[in-house]
Amino acid sequence: MHVIVCVKQVPDTTNVRINPETNTLMREGVESIMNPYDEYALEQALKLKDKHGARVSVISMGPPQADVVLREALARGADDGVLLTDRAFAGADTLATSYAIAQAIKRINPAPDIVFFGKQAIDGDTAQVGPGVSELLNCALVTYVQALEVEGDTFTVETHMDDGTDVIEGKLPVVMTVVKEASTPRFASLSGWMAAKKAEIPRWGAADVKAVKEMIGLDGSPTKVVKIFAPPVKTGGVRMDGRGDPAAAVEAIVRALQDKGVVKS
Amino acid sequence: MSNATKITTDILCVGAGVASLSTALSLLRTLKAQGKPLPRVTIVEKGRSVGNHVLSGAVIDPEGFKGLLTEEEIAKMPIEARVSKESFHMLFNETAAMKIPWVPPMMQAHQFPVGSLTKLTQYLAQLCEKEGAEIYTSFAVTELIEDSKGRVIGARTGEKGLDHEGKPKSNYLPGEEIYAKAVVLGEGACGILTDRLIHSKGLHGCREQSYAVGIKEVIEVPADEARTGEIAHTFGYPSDWSTYGGGFIYHVSPTQVMICFAYALDYARPEKDPHLMFRQFKAHPAVAEHIKGGKSVAYGAKVIPEGGYYSVPEVVADGALIVGDGAGLVDTLRIKGVHIAMQAGVAAATTLAECWDKKDFSLAALRPYSDRLKATSGWKQLKRVKNVRAPFSTNLALGVMSAGCAWATFGMFPFWQVPMAPDHEEMLPLKGGKMPEPPQVAASPTSPDRLTDVFMSGTIHDEDQPCHLKIKDRAKCEECIKKFGAPCQRFCPAEVYRLEDGHIHVDFSNCLHCKTCQVKDPYQNIEWTFPQGGDGPRYTRM
CB 3.0-4.6 Å disulfide test: which of A127, A227, B219, B239 passes with A120? Predict the structure, then answer.
């Protein structure tokens, strides 16, 4: 079994601030991390390695410094990684990104058993690249996976939907996007990191994955950013301070919700 | 833990702070310049990224760069400002202040770099990695490994993925063992392993280490090019006359002011609240004008070793060297330690380079580090002000006078060793048996409350893990509540300790790893242990 996990390096948005003048992210002091949803995807892949001895490959697309997320994946147990990095990829929207990644997957293995993605990246929040790649690979897609079993060439997944859980059975190969509920990602060990730091991580450019110029970067991106704006700050609302008397604050909240008909009295 | 993964390296540095990194950088460069084979240097840091647990003013005495960084590297340092204007203020009460007409000569810092130590640390880390040092973050080194003769031969990392009862979770990761020819302890102020080693090997200085807690914010202010590089120091209010305390205000860029208040932990009144004092300090008109129209954006706290010369331990043990703040290498008068940390690193590196070359890491071969440290300019300064700190515990005026005398006589006066008791013994019982209500300070963008500040520190701990702040004996808590009114709820700058229904609740997730509780708890009933590696504050611009 060979599974491929696609990971993205994103700014850690837990403490991020927006420049009020330009509406862009203030980068100062913002660290780069592996997209948290990709950690859940990676964990599913590593479980298949534990259980079925699957080979786990990881791919990322980004600037040269993005290779640290691949090393992190190796430190946790992935077998090999490749970084797609080329100025020609810059400015890609989700379509051009999907194409570049699909091309890279074809080079790693034209017939992988499973390709994993996180459900979405926390910077763009589009949730489009996983589905885009499945289309380009002409491969089945299941999104929002929270549990996975594989037996022979059959997979069974539970998917996390708004109104409950779907159970889906199908045949490999398949592209999956994984949600947080799937499982707690494992930690990388110190010895794992030591090996990962030394690992060879090939860097592939557009030519290496036989990407056509018209399909990548800005040229391959029909999406154009016309304007960036911060949504207006919501006003109004009531602040209930529960530090003095938490019980009274809870009561007040319940009463307010009842008045609005959100919960039954 | 016999089945733990065993890793072998040559030099293991615990903590990726300035002292450790200076050691690694200088060691690798020294050997490279001599054309010698290079050792494997492994640096292990508990913060999630390098610099996350580093906090300082920081006005840096450039003496430290000598022999460590090239001119080009100094020019490229990620520190924007140089000190252009200095002033010194005495604050009498909440409104009155007097600008001292001259800056005391020992405090002068003209053209010294001023900026974020977090960023400088990250820069040093990059230089180290370029020379081949390996840095691993998010791993807490929780134990030193000794052989049967008591020689330090390595260290153990902490487990990860334990639940609140200490049972393994699905992502449990066992600790690992790293063996090395020598271990460099660069844990920073109040280092847990360092203090354990000092106690077990009897390496104490002449007197116990004493500390201050430093509380700091970065405040973004409307742009003012003209003030960049301006620094101001204050003493007096809101400290009481018998406690060493003071403030720092540094304009590190046109839009950023770093503001810090340090309060000595040998204070006597249990109701003292350093965070609240920090807010009173910021509200003082002489201080407020520096941060007018601004907004606090980052927060942190850390203890500062203040014991000086007499509190420095023996810095060499069999198999281990102690560098930086962990050894208390801070010039007590100027509250400057970054340059001594760097010099200690170079001194340690020179020694380790010799050891590596001669393949001899015996105690005798490690010993010269101690002498080399004592030959540095930083150490000489430490000696010159060796008795400056102690008189301040009695009275501010006495402190100022003796500081002047010590400076003028090159440290010869006072010629006796002025005694000081350990910080935790200095607390007096509550007056009238009741904790007084804290003074009220109005919240504002430059004066956030404590929990808002904690949020801005970025601190985070997995809450499903054993509480790392261990209360050894709950009965002592009851006694403390009666006698002192539970001072932990006031001295902790992160609101970790809460008195509710007559019990102390420990919200360890707020912890800033500052160690104030470990130092100041009057019963020494709080044991600071290591949370999961990677947890704790996430300072990025401290």
Answer: A127
CA atoms of B48 and B531, how far apart (whole Å): 12
CA B278/CA B260 separation, integer angstroms? 7
Question: In Å, what is the CA distance from B230 to each residue of A150, B78, B227, B284, B476?
Answer: 65, 18, 5, 18, 47
CB-based contact (8 Å) between A30 and chain B? yes
Q: Do B157 and A29 touch (CB under 8 A)?
A: no
Span(s) in chain A for CATH 3.40.50.620: 2-215
List the structure tokens of A225: 């950013």
Q: What is the pLDDT of residues B72-86, one digit of tens each?
A: 999 999 988 999 999
CATH tag for B5-68+120-205+312-384 (out of 3.30.420.10, 1.10.418.60, 3.30.2350.10, 3.50.50.60): 3.50.50.60
C-alpha B156/C-alpha B1 separation (Å) is 10
Angle (nearest 5°) at CA B132 between B131 and B134: 130
Domain ranges of chain B: 5-68+120-205+312-384, 79-114+208-307, 389-417, 425-528
Query: What are the DSSP calls for B291-306, one per residue?
Result: STT-EEEEEEEEEEE-
Record: fold of B425-528: Alpha-Beta Plaits (3.30.70)
End-to-end CA distance of chain A: 55
The CATH H-level (homologous superfamily) assignment of domain A2-215 is: HUPs (3.40.50.620)
Nearest CA in chain A to B140: A190
Distances B443 to B69, B225, B276, B455 between C-alpha atoms, Å: 43, 28, 11, 15
Pairwise CA distance, residues B59 & B338, whole Å: 9
Q: Does A240 touch chain B (CB under 8 A)?
A: no
* Nearest-neighbour CA in chain B from A185: distance (Å): 7
CA distances from B43 to A22, A155, B18, B142, B187 (A): 40, 43, 12, 14, 11
Residues of A with CB below 8 A from B169's CB?
Answer: 184
Inter-residue contact A52 to A150 (CB < 8 Å): yes
Give the Cα separation of B418 and B57 in Å (integer): 28
What's the CATH number of domain B79-114+208-307, 3.40.50.720, 3.30.9.90, 3.20.20.30, 3.40.50.620? Answer: 3.30.9.90
* pLDDT mean across residues, chain A: 93
What is the rounded CA–CA span in Å between residue B89 and residue B287?
A: 10
Q: Tally Cβ neighbours within 10 Å of residue A167.
A: 9
- Quote the tokens at residue A81: 């990684």
Distance CA A223, CA B309 (A): 65
Comparison of pLDDT for B393 and A228, the residue scoring more = A228
Distance CA B51, CA B41 (A): 19
Contacts of A135 (CB under 8 A, 6+ apart): A98, A141
| A235 Cβ under 8 Å from any chain B Cβ | no
Whether the CB-CB separation of B279 and B452 falls below 8 Å is answered with no
Average pLDDT score, chain B: 93
User: Mind telling me how many Å the CA of B428 is from chain A's nearest CA?
Assistant: 29
pLDDT at A66: 95
Q: What is the pLDDT of residue B474?
A: 95
Count H helices and E strands in chain A, helices first.
Answer: 6, 11
- pTM to 2 decimals? 0.92
Q: By percentage, how much of chain B surpasses pLDDT 90?
A: 84
- C-alpha–C-alpha distance, residues B488 and B521, integer Å: 7
Residue A91 touches partner B, C-beta closer than 8 Å:
no
Distance CA B407, CA B109 (A): 16
Res A128 pLDDT > 80: yes
Instruction: Quote the crossing angle between the two packed helices B18-33 and B338-358, to the nearest 10°.
Output: 40
Residue B234 has phi, psi (to 5 degrees) of -130, 155
